[in-house]
Amino acid sequence: MNAPPEHRHENSPADRPARLTVGVVGAGRVGPALAAALQLAGHRPVAVSGVSDASVRRAAALLPDVPLVPPAEVLARAELVLLTVPDDALPGLVEGLAETGAIRPGQLLVHTSGRYGTAVLDPARRAGALPLALHPAMTFTGTAVDVQRLAGCSFGVTAPEELRLAAEALVIEMGGEPEWIEEGDRPLYHAALALGANHLVTLVAQSMELLGRAGVAHPDRMLGPLLGAALDNALRSGDAALTGPVARGDAGTVAAHVAELREHAPGMVAGYLAMARTTADRALAHGLLKPELAQDLLGVLAEGDER
Known about the structure:
Structural class: alpha/beta
Radius of gyration: 24 Å
Number of domains: 2
Domain Putative oxidoreductase/dehydrogenase Rossmann-like: 13-136
Largest sheet: 7 strands, mixed
Oligomer: single chain
CATH class of the largest domain: Alpha Beta
Order of helices and strands: EHEHHEHEHEHEHEHHHHHH
Protein name: DUF2520 domain-containing protein
CATH superfamily of the largest domain: NAD(P)-binding Rossmann-like Domain
CATH topology of the largest domain: Rossmann fold
Domain DUF2520: 153-278
InterPro entries: 6-PGluconate_DH-like_C_sf (IPR008927), DUF2520 (IPR018931), NAD(P)-bd_dom_sf (IPR036291), OxRdtase/DH_put_Rossmann_dom (IPR019665), TM1727-like_C_sf (IPR037108)
Distance between the termini: 61 Å
């Protein structure tokens, strides 16, 4: 994907000759950021499609002067097309583009869904497109900060073997690090990321809410250092990083937690019990929770379910 040495310039990326024209179908939080990153690498965004007011604003902010056109027109103008629509909308979009003849032979068609590999692009492949699945393992805000966050971001890459090097090169040009994921492993891969990232947001939001009810003026300041250390320890040590009353087998403390949640935040009880039970199982398997203490703890958790 890199330009030959004789075509390189030593000055800014904007002065390098563009190598691929880039289009975006679906100007959500992801597409404009990836197109902006490709632009920094010397490619040239030429068209974007979006429907909502938020999509139009994102496209204008991250891809200024790039025209907003219908999806078919994006494909007509671009050599590399990013399909950045919600997972459930992707199969229908691909089928529709193929049926209407919008796809051109030799066109690079890239989707960013974590759930799907390249099989979802089969209708486009039959029309002559070159299918790539490039999923950035990153949460996006829809602002310019997303382009910076792509530096060092892992991408789940799935592609036909003959396109593997091209797929990995595109990821590297966006500042990311390619991680090969087999077609059949994509759903498990995506479930793992959702379990960690999406549920983390829910847990943090609940924790901040409870701290606020307990009178803490700045829950974010209190949680920041604690959660940062917990995340760092977990990434370094896995289950060995488990601490707290569940890992210690403090059944009385856990019972008090459940009672307080029932009084002040009953909607959070089920989640607390589920996570506590999972934590207990992992702590027990790792040798952190003593079996004689686990019995009382699991009894408390069972009572919590029955109430």
